[in-house]
Amino acid sequence: MMGFGSGMGGGLFFGLLMMVGLILLGVVLVRVMGGGLRRGDGGGTDGPSPASPGASARRLLDERYARGEVSTEEYQERLRVLGQRD
User: CA 26 to CA 13: how far, in whole Å?
Assistant: First the structure.
């Protein structure tokens, strides 16, 4: 009768799969505990700090202006208002 994967090859595959899973779990835990799992975290130092509330508002405004959703006048006015908040 056949063992259906419970022999030497099946145990080796399962062991490797468990090891890879544990390593991935460890990497994720380290990154979460270190605060390293943020979207768009390039680690660069250019631009406003991601912690400042104006940074995300400015980024969204820049994206909307680039897509043509706001006019130049509206963009400049909103930049002025955002500058007063900081």
Answer: 20
Q: Are 37 and 31 in contact (CB under 8 A)?
A: yes
Report in angstroms the alpha-carbon separations of 27 from 21, 22, 34, 37, 67.
Answer: 10, 9, 11, 11, 37
Give the model confidence (pLDDT) of 4-28 as tens digits. 555 566 678 888 999 999 999 999 8
- Its pTM surpasses 0.85: no
Number of neighbouring beta carbons within 10 Å of residue 61: 19
Each domain of the chain, given as residue ranges in start order, spans: 51-86
DSSP string of the chain, one letter each residue: ---TT-SHHHHHHHHHHHHHHHHHHHHHHHHHHTT---TT------SS-TTSHHHHHHHHHHHHHHTTSS-HHHHHHHHHHHHHH-
